[in-house]
Amino acid sequence: MLAILERLDPHSDRIDLLVDLVDRLRPRNPRNHEYARAQVRTLTQLLKGDAEQAWALRRYLSTLLETRRHTSLYSDVGILSNDGFFTELKKRMAYRLLPPALDELYLSDTLDRVLCREDDYQWIRAVPTCDWLELFDVISNAPPPLDAAPDMARQATLRGLLDAIRTLSCRVCALGLEPRLIHAHMEIEEVDSPFLMQNIETNHYLDGYARVLAGDADDMEDARHLLVMLDQCEEVVMKIRRGALNSGTSVALTYVLVALTQSIDRLRKLLYLVDTSGALPAAPSVDLEAMAREAQARDIDAPCEAPLSPRRAAAVALAQELAEAHNTKYQVRGLLRDNVDLLARNVTENASRTGEHYIAERRTELGTMLRAAAGAGLFVGCMAIIKILISYQHRAPLIEALFYSLNYALGFMLVHVLHFTIATKQPAMTAARIAAALHGHAQQGHTRRQVDVESMAILVNKVFRTQLVAVLGNLATTIPMAYALALGWWYVFGQHLVSPEKAHHLIADSHPWHSLALLHAAIAGVWLFVSGLVSGYYDNKALYTRMARRVEQLRWLRRLIGRERLPRFARYIEDNLGGLMGNLVFGVLMGVTATVGFLLGLPLDIRHVTFSSANFAIGFVGLDQQIDAETAVMTVLGIALIGTVNLLVSFGLALWVALRARKVRFRHGFRLLRALGWRLRVAPLDFFIGPQDADPVPEPHTTRGFK
């Protein structure tokens, strides 16, 4: 490090020496934070002991700052561009493979050579603020020689900050007047837009600042009124976010909201740094108490000598933020995290509303669910027969996959239109409903955990018994329907629908360990989860795009079904678009999986509990209703395990996504199981078939055993 300081040329604007100096501060292991702290303190002590080297480093850094453009570093790094989500995603993926050409005339591009590792920000943040400020003071307070030229670095930095404020203000104004944002919050058109007003206030503030710098004015107004305008802009953003849960959202709107939030936050921080009135509140990124504790814990023998003021601490916090944003600017994960969260929340929110229809409160509702599931089972039995008939045509693999997909998709959509229920379609919806309940408890700030766990136990119990009744309802009609159709085929045509070899194959496919039934059941569970996401996505899209109004504007449809029926049909499409598309996608995935596995040479297929039970009935008829008891028992066990895997995989994935979308963590699984066990022990009949009336709200004393 001393050799690098001795080689410094105070008047050079080459970046190489700064790169070498930072490389000495950087630990080889990014987690070795102690090394970085020790190196920064060593550099500080070296400069304290040699004023000439401190001045040489100061002059060298000043030259670097004076000869480079600052604005883009403060206004662009860490803030989404105006390109849109998919363009930004494509750009980041491309730059991960082949970085863009850099121009070291810009300070933001210079950082690519100085902070060349993606984990540099970790050790920079690990060095205490007090140490950075002490190093900065040693450099900035170094006495200059008598013949030294005036230092213009501060003026260059200030100009860059002011230009960045103007740039960010214009960007906030442009984003705030985006048509998609106005569409989501039409009140903006009725009053003066805060996005436009903040730009007017910013220009007024900067013009006053310029007069003070030029010596044409002695003082200037503070930025408090401008901050009020920024508060109003943030209120609009929050209203749109809250409204999106009811009216839907899109990737493009979410991207605009994220870019707006980032721009407003950066604008606040820059205003705090440049304002000289001292009347502004502390920067939102500065926690002085935490920094004071950090300074006290720094070193008992070497207490912090640098004064810790809010403005200086804010400057360090912004520098650390820029370093992290620079290191992660090409990461795809951060872009997805910032933009997909709200969309995922809306998708699962719509799924949770749908999930309310799949949770029975009373025995009468369980009876309704049983009848709906039984109706769906009739169609599944027919679909299983049709699939076998399609396989006898021996079409080309892709054509066969198309016919399979049409069979599944049309059958599932018809089940939805007739208001029947397929049991395995429920977990993706009910999981989102459970996540919504957990999120509601978190928002209400409950402190009595016992009541929370008991409430969740009641909800999970409702979901369990509803699922159980739905599965039994499906199987109660699927097996007899498939059996009757296979037997009817033999009576009509004089031969079985399937040969003995085919019958053995249909039954063997459900064996729990002599086949890949459980793996294929897990694949089916994944497709059930995906169809739930698709359903939520299109429900969200129908709300956001006002699907009913769009359908009502179709003149050819008005002529086809009549003016009176069109509004009802349009409303039906908006309310059921998610369900129809989810069933369509699930049917297609069910139909193409085996074909894709065949083309790739992979053991891919699906096993669905209802179709496996239908195949068992068809195979049983094909073997003249004669199978040994061991085969029957193992097949029934396999079908039960297939259903369990279907439900657990789809439910687990859906619950995981729903909890992540709401940023909720539930760490009381064992206590929840104990609560469920207590309910089973106290009222086993109600546990499985539900009470006559709705479950009562739990009293605090009912949960004493679950502390």
| Main β sheet profile | none
Gyration radius over CA: 33 Å
The quaternary organization reads as single chain
Q: How does the helix and strand content classify structurally? A: mainly alpha
List the secondary-structure elements in sequence, H or E: HHHHHHHHHHHHHHHHHHHHHHHHHHHHHH
Average the pLDDT over all residues and give the rounded result.
82
Give the low-confidence spans: 445-451, 697-707
The rounded distance between the terminal residues' Cα atoms is: 58 Å
In percent, how much strand structure appears in the residues? under 5%
Q: What helical percentage do the residues reach? A: over 70%
Shape: elongated
In DSSP terms, counting alpha (H) and pi (I) runs of 4 or more, how many helices? 30
| Strand segment tally | 0
